[in-house]
Design goal:
- By secondary structure, this protein is of the alpha/beta class.
- Helix 4 runs antiparallel to helix 12.
- It has a four-stranded mixed beta sheet with strand order 2-1-3-4, with no helix packed on it. The protein has a two-stranded antiparallel ribbon with strand order 5-6. A two-stranded antiparallel sheet has the order 7-8.
- A hairpin with a 2-residue loop joins strand 7 and strand 8.
- The protein starts with a helix and ends with a helix.
């Protein structure tokens, strides 16, 4: 899985891109029943849609891939005087295509009713497109092009990586402790190893496996995406086709300047700082949550009993990921600010804020609070672990676990 997962990640990038270029063989026949006679000639056949009149279709029955479009009145006077009939669910793309054609025609009619010469040209000339460029100013006075959108994507990617790995490897710690306890292997092991050393070794060992796997995934995924970008065309990945003017088929063509601008904005981020912070927050968050997972594994005998004790962990993790997602829009807002200092949400939320160049003191304070909480959680978990690891046959209550901590 270590080497297979990057292939899956790369496939998630390129397979949808490849599938979007494929054309379907499914052709819809649209019977245009225009009682007004104003709109039936607007529709032109495409690769997927064939428009016919009722007397040309041979039958007015709506079956299979046949759809009936009925227009009963002038749409300028009654915009709701059109309906689509089908014996199965109509695809959204068909509805969108018909709406686009009719809206374009009705807008043209509406403009013509004003009797203003060259109104179409005036409206076209009045359209203005602007694109605000974001420039990052360095301390030495130099400037570099930046992008809030790219910063948001970077933050979200690292946030989800920390969330997924803490959940996955924390659960691995709990499962390992439960297996050793159930198989009674732990009774032999603690005869020569202190319970704290045993717990710490398991947390550190699995954590190093996680870091190794992340580094390999990062290297392999980057290599595969780069190779795929050269084969398919980097412009398709960097600057996907966007609708222009709401017209189907009209797309914005990526330009070399757009690609260069993207690369310049992408290069403006301090990835060295981002990667270092990612490793530190991952390690701190993992140790904090993994120690809790280890304590849960030591306190119970089977997986069914873990649900009761997993609820606090899951609550913090889910709140953290939602806070991180909502913090993308306002990385300096109260939610993002305070959740990036609260130790149980800091590893996830802070990674959203770091690409936006937050002050260094906030990162350091968050790391100190996270490290202190992680040490405290390890201390508490070690007390629960050394008592619960040798107890069998009974699911402890929260009151009993609190008593173990005081031993």
């Amino acid at each position: 899985m270590t080497f297979l997962t990057p292939l899956i990640f790369a496939a998630l990038v390129f397979v949808p891109l490849w599938l979007s270029t494929l054309k379907t063989d499914n052709v819809y026949t649209i019977i245009v029943n225009d009682r007004t006679g104003l709109y039936e000639n607007l529709f032109e056949n495409t690769d997927n849609y064939r428009f016919v009149k009722p007397n040309d279709s041979g039958t007015d029955a709506v079956k299979g891939n046949s759809v009936m479009l009925e227009i009963t009145a002038n749409l300028l006077d009654n915009p709701k005087a059109l309906s689509l009939y089908s014996d199965k669910q109509i695809p959204p793309e068909l509805t969108k295509s018909i709406n686009t054609i009719l809206i374009a025609h009705l807008e043209k009619q509406k403009r013509a009713s004003y009797n203003i010469p060259d109104l179409d040209r005036i409206i076209q000339d009045s359209k203005v497109k602007i694109n605000v460029q974001t420039i990052k100013l360095d301390k030495d006075g130099s400037s570099r092009k930046s992008s809030a959108e790219i910063a948001s994507v970077i933050g979200i990617v690292f946030t989800f990586l920390i969330y997924i790995f803490i959940m996955a490897y924390g659960a691995m710690v709990m499962q390992g402790v439960m297996e050793e306890k159930t198989n009674r292997i732990v009774e032999v092991m603690i005869s020569s190893v202190r319970p704290f050393d045993l717990m710490a070794g398991k947390i550190i060992g699995i954590g190093l496996v996680g870091l190794t796997q992340m580094i390999l995934w990062g290297i392999l995924t980057s290599g595969l995406v780069s190779i795929g970008g050269m084969i398919i065309g980097s412009s398709q990945i960097v600057s996907p086709s966007l609708p222009v003017g709401g017209m189907p088929g009209a797309v914005a063509t990526p330009t070399p300047d757009g690609l260069l601008g993207f690369m310049a904005a992408f290069g403006s981020f301090n990835f060295g700082e981002i990667f270092i912070c990612f490793i530190l927050f991952f390690v701190g968050g993992y140790i904090m949550y993994a120690s809790f997972y280890a304590a849960i594994g030591a306190a119970i005998d089977n997986t069914e009993d873990s649900q009761q004790f997993m609820m606090p962990v899951m609550t913090f993790m889910l709140f953290a990921i939602y806070a991180g997602i909502y913090s993308v829009q306002n990385p300096d807002g109260p939610l993002a600010f305070w959740c990036s200092f609260f130790p149980f949400t800091a590893p996830i939320v802070m990674m959203v804020r770091i690409p936006f160049d937050i002050p260094l003191w906030q990162i350091l304070v968050s790391m100190v609070l996270l490290a202190g909480t992680a040490v405290f959680m390890v201390w508490i978990s070690a007390k629960i672990y050394r008592t619960g690891i040798l107890m069998y046959g009974k699911k402890p209550t929260f009151k009993e676990i609190a008593r173990w901590v005081r031993y």
